[in-house]
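Intended use. Records like the one below are meant for learning the mapping from a protein sequence to its folded structure. Do not use them to infer anything beyond what is encoded.
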Amino acid sequence: MADAPGKPSHSHLPVAVEFAQRRAESIQNRVADAITRFAGSMAFVYLHIVLFGVWMLVVEKSPWPTLTLVVSLEAIFLSTFVMIAQNRSAAFDDAKSEREFREQETELHTNTEITQEIQRLTQELHRRLIEQGGQPEQGGQPEQGGQPDQGTENEKLPRLDSNQQPSG
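Structure written out for the chain above:
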């Protein structure tokens, strides 16, 4: 399963490996993949240029009714292989999406459990601090040594209203 140039390769993804293994189990899938790979290559284009040129110059004269029939039949089959390739791509995308969904659900479940455990531990820590006689401050931090906060020198000064002037 070769990727187009400029397109990211999915061959390293576990879902891609699993998907390729399942496709390789069927001879029909392997044949369809080989035809699709060849039909999507420049070798296919060059081969047709040569074959059509030889046919038009050597095998049949204008208006080339047999060549028209062959090309029409080839177009029918190639369009079928294009549809097969699109179905394969859609099935791969579905499998990849399903796997990503399961992984995200697992991560969500794990994160929820971790968050609940953090909450439980925080509540237990708070309960133990209360039992020890420490009162948590508004910021959630217990006071050091259980002593009331003395404050800074600026906090001890009286506050002025916005219309009061400091006394000098």
